Prior knowledge:
The protein has strands spanning about 15-20, 30-35, 40-45, 55, 60-65, 70-75, 80-85, 100-110, 120-125, 130-135, 140-145, 160-165, 170-180, 180-185, 190-195. By secondary structure, it is mostly beta strands. Strands 1-2-3-4 form a 4-stranded antiparallel sheet, with no helix packed on it. A 4-stranded antiparallel sheet has the order 5-6-7-8, with no helix packed on it. The chain is globular, with a radius of gyration of 16 Å.
Amino acid sequence: xxxxxxxxxxxxxxxxxxxxxxxxxxxxxxxxxxxxxxxxxxxxxxxxxxxxxxxxxxxxxxxxxxxxxxxxxxxxxxxxxxxxxxxxxxxxxxxxxxxxxxxxxxxxxxxxxxxxxxxxxxxxxxxxxxxxxxxxxxxxxxxxxxxxxxxxxxxxxxxxxxxxxxxxxxxxxxxxxxxxxxxxxxxxxxxxxxxx
Length: 196
């Protein structure tokens, strides 16, 4: 039946704050759904089953979640980024262009050092195999697959995290990604898109 599958949440005592679901049934991991509740707890479940979600107890203080093709990311209130799942083209390795491995456990993802410090991230978005992140200085970081220029820079087909060259004089306030496309919104309401 192609209709919606009800997902029971027996332990969810707080209202949902954000839900993310995407993936591919090919490979070693199935499609996953990730839910962030209003208390900062994260839940995960396989999308193709009506299995109750499991709380991911290794994560706390999460402010945002996003999913890509068989991987998920969580951003905490301190700006730390965590990831798990399949890393087909680099979305789970911001400091390298490594790919093909699976992170079976939730892993803190280190960002590259810039100006003698690691960036403090405030927003994340993921496409199929690429990630965008916004830091407290208004810089956009991009890494992972780049075969359709979804990272907004020329760096090869799989790239480590780096910042995009500024394309507006106004601060960036939001980033979004999906498939092989990326987008950013500045404080003046100007929308910028790239990728294909």
